[in-house]
Amino acid sequence: MDVTGLINTREGWVDRRIFWDQAIYEQELERVFARAWLFVAHESELPRPGDFLTTYMGQDSVIVARHTDGRIRVFTNSCTHRGNRICFADGGNARQFTCNYHGWSFGTDGALMGLHEEAHYAGWIDKSHWGLQNARVETYKGLVFACFDADAPSLEDYLGDYRWYLDIVLDQTDEGTEFIGGCVRNDFQANWKFGVENFTGDSLHASWTHDSGAKAMTYGKPVPDFMPVEQDSFHANANGHGWEGGTDGLGTLGIMSLRRPVIMAYYQQKRAQMARRLGELRATRLFGSVVSASVFPNFSYLPGIGTMRVWHPKGPRRIELRAWTIVNRDMPDEVRNAMRDACMETFSPSGVFEMDDGENWENATRANEGVVTRRQRLHYGLRVGTSRRDDPDLPGNISRPMYSDVNQLAFYQRWMDFMTGQSWRDIPRVR
Ligand code: FES
Ligand code: FE
């Protein structure tokens, strides 16, 4: 399907069809999710050989497992005999995965191991050809990504300049990060792109959508009290990945710390070590006033709040959200418990902000489908064209202030690159 007329990133508008059309959705699975690097796990979820979890890459069910050689493998969760789903558990530890139907078994690297009654197959199968499809797997400072496209660039190149921003969360201390408290799921009857575009650069909604929830949580303080000062705020994007925040202000860390001062006390104590690793600008000014961020295509996080999340597409009108709390490994129990509780209080199925957001995205998905409604484009023109790659301090494309559609347009430009490109040869390496 030719999608070239559906988005105009120079004029700043989007066709509503991209939020509900089945054919566009099928093309997204083929051209975005089967080509991009996708977040699948944090290394801390799989500490020992045999540890595994199941998740999705697009709508493909996959097993993420630490093999006996210590490496993490990612492979399709569908038997090569009749296609039955092999593993139904969310996670655990296993020596192999055995299919319910006829008993074929596969190793923690996806290789076909046994056929139950080997005698039946003597001379009829070359087992080395019938293993599960392995994805490429690369990690970035604890985060595990996988990709099904052999022509994709390395994960480091895919992230590009954006690594500088990711490091603000992943590289604060010598000991690194981990996920705690398991995975929390939530379901939205909404298009997956609404979750991503909201986290990649929609600070505009926060003061309006979250005003009452924020006041309830913060003893009456309105959201703008926690936002970066407007003249110091900015949008950064690189290769379709986005970061919004400022160089001054309280940000999401301020909201977290108000009710749980141990969090801010921890960061004050860590400031010198963070500055040594990240420099003063990133360690204090940027981290202290960040709002939200996303990695293309469907991985988002809130650096101060500690939520990391994947918007799994389940059809054009449904998202399965999986979310975790990320903490520094060196955090004392009191601080990590505070981080987890604050994360659940804000961004979980019962979190005050998650509910606010989900309602908007569900209604937008439904309303965009109206047969007359759909004829009118959507406005994405706030500060369109103001993104520039020449800031002396901040890598990537920068636009000021952060109240703009600039990062959302960068996300949709990348989406367009993937949707129109016949292969990775047509997709710009740096955008
Ligand atoms: Fe898996 Fe037959 S479908 S063993
Ligand atoms: Fe929100």
TrEMBL record:
Residues 38-146 form the Rieske domain. Keywords: 2Fe-2S, Aromatic hydrocarbons catabolism, Dioxygenase, Iron, Iron-sulfur, Metal-binding, NAD, Oxidoreductase. InterPro entries: ARHD_Rieske_2Fe_2S (IPR015881), RHO_NdoB-like_C (IPR043266), Rieske_2Fe-2S (IPR017941), Rieske_2Fe-2S_sf (IPR036922), Ring_hydroxy_dOase_asu_C_dom (IPR015879), Rng_hydr_dOase-A (IPR001663). SUPFAM superfamilies: Bet v1-like, ISP domain. One of its GO terms (molecular function) is iron ion binding. This is Ribosomal subunit interface protein. PANTHER family: 3-PHENYLPROPIONATE_CINNAMIC ACID DIOXYGENASE SUBUNIT ALPHA (PTHR43756:SF1), CHOLINE MONOOXYGENASE, CHLOROPLASTIC (PTHR43756). Belongs to the bacterial ring-hydroxylating dioxygenase alpha subunit family.
